Input
Amino acid sequence: MISKKMTDALNLQMNREFFNARLYLSMAAYFESLNLPGAAQWMTAQAQEETGHAMRLHHHLRERGARIVLAALEAPPTQWDSPLAAFEAAYEHECKVSRQFDEHMALAQSEKDYASTIFLQWFVSEQVEEEASTDEIVQKIKMIGDHKGGLFMLDRALGERKADD
Ligand code: FEO
Output
């Protein structure tokens, strides 16, 4: 039986992951407006992945017999100062999400909820990848600087990302 505290924490995180999907869809729209379709595709794939994260939490809660609670979601930002600023925001956001999962893991362990501990391990590993992939793009954009050709090449590479990457 899953505790009320753990149920609330995982419901909260499920709703956050739905917000994350909307944040990245908003970033995709921003990149479309800059005529950077590759970055827009990368963000769309990221949004699909975030919906997948929310559904993993949904599935776990259902399997544990917990009540699912869908909350109102705040609107994500719609504008960033530059492609670099958008990817920096994505990186910082992922660092925040990593801390959220660390807190859920700590709660699961303190509650001796081993099913949630094992379930959350996947997310802890996933967050290492999420931070690394966004940081890698930040570093590349910094290297490119004001070189338009470099940004075009990067955009083409980002466009190769599929939803499951
Ligand atoms: Fe599901 Fe990128 O956090």
Summary: The mean pLDDT is 97. Residues 114-144 form the longest helix (31 residues). The CA atoms of residues 141 and 147 lie 10 Å apart. Residues 17, 20, 50, 53, 94, 97, 130 surround MU-OXO-diiron (CB under 6 Å).
